[in-house]
Amino acid sequence: MLVTGATGRVGRVVVDLLIDAGVPVRALTHRSEAAATLPANVEVVTGDLTVPESLDAGLRGVGTVFLVWTAPPTTAPAVVGRLATYARRVVFLSSPHQTPHPFFQQPNPMAVLHADIERLIAAAGLESTIIRPGMFASNPLFWWAAAIRADGVVRWPYGAAETAPVDDRDVAAVAARTLHQDGHAGGDYVLTGPESLSQAEQVSIIGDVVGRAIRFQELSPEEFRSETEGSWPRPVVDMLLAAWGATIGRPAFITSTVFDILGSAPRSFRQWVADHATAFMEGPTPSS
Ligand SMILES: NC(=O)c1ccc[n+]([C@@H]2O[C@H](COP(=O)([O-])OP(=O)(O)OC[C@H]3O[C@@H](n4cnc5c(N)ncnc54)[C@H](OP(=O)(O)O)[C@@H]3O)[C@@H](O)[C@H]2O)c1
Asked: Contact at 8 Å (CB) between 189 and 130?
């Protein structure tokens, strides 16, 4: 099996779980220095999704690919064509863009890209399993951890917007299961965490777990746009604002799919925070 995105949040855990299941794994890295984060008993190959021919060596002899796409869209048709030349099956990390909940039905360039790649996979005749997680529980590491460590104030829009954060480890566990267990061809799985929590509640849970009062300071969408100007891509900011704004007044969409596939309950957001608490505590920035 070839795991792409093997050094990322989901792919890195997929690699470990496949090794634990006794599956021979090849891990694709894009930056060769990232290979140091992978276990010694995994075969590492380098390749770049923006340079389709660079994937050939990694694809030789592979039957199944875990596909994570974080590159620009241009080379997706050529890459999926190459996957179909070598492999029989793809498990694709996508998003819930077909789910009829306002949160998932706003303008979203990532959703457009995911839908395009799904169409390419189907047209190439590959057997597929589509994994569609909602908001990752780990997003607060990138969104709030620095502010919480600095002064304990999270300046953020739409505090009342509810999401059901799904633990990246549960996403990886479902992906790994569908990669190494039969019966998931054609599977289309929307994954969420177990509970609907407003963004302000999520901040409050972090405060509870780390034993520190953290203040949620509501920003208007315009204030958020200007605070993130230059440091966040504008399409990402617009996409998030539209999704949060559209979900105000509604609970998040929740599925039982993690339990249905794994036979164990999805991890709660509180559990995720407890397992990553040091990232929110005062002191130097943790390395991961
Ligand atoms: N965050 C969320 O809430 C959320 C929710 C639903 C779906 N998703 C989807 O999840 C996916 C991201 O997964 P993730 O968070 O596990 O990834 P991630 O942690 O952002 O890691 C990105 C991975 O992509 C690799 N990569 C980057 N550019 C590449 C290129 N040009 N060629 C080959 N590999 C490349 C990186 O490899 P190197 O380290 O070698 O550079 C790394 O392994 C996206 O498609 C996103 O839309 C995210």
From this structure: yes
Query: Do residues 77 and 201 share a domain?
Result: no
- Spatial distance between the Cα atoms of 101 and 135, rounded to a whole number of angstroms: 14
Q: pTM for this one?
A: 0.97
C-alpha distances (whole Å) from 32 to each of 36, 54, 62, 262, 287 are: 8, 13, 21, 33, 18
Map residue 107 onto helix, strand or coil: coil
Tell how far the Cα of 215 is from the centroid of ligand 1, in angstroms: 30
Q: Which domain holds residue 147?
A: 139-163+194-252+268-280
Ligand 1 near 140 CB (within 6 A): no
Q: The domain that contains 75 carries what CATH number? A: 3.40.50.720
Q: 1-51 pLDDT, tens per residue?
A: 999 999 999 999 999 999 999 999 999 999 988 889 999 889 999 999 999
Nearest CA residue ID for atom 43, ligand 1: 5
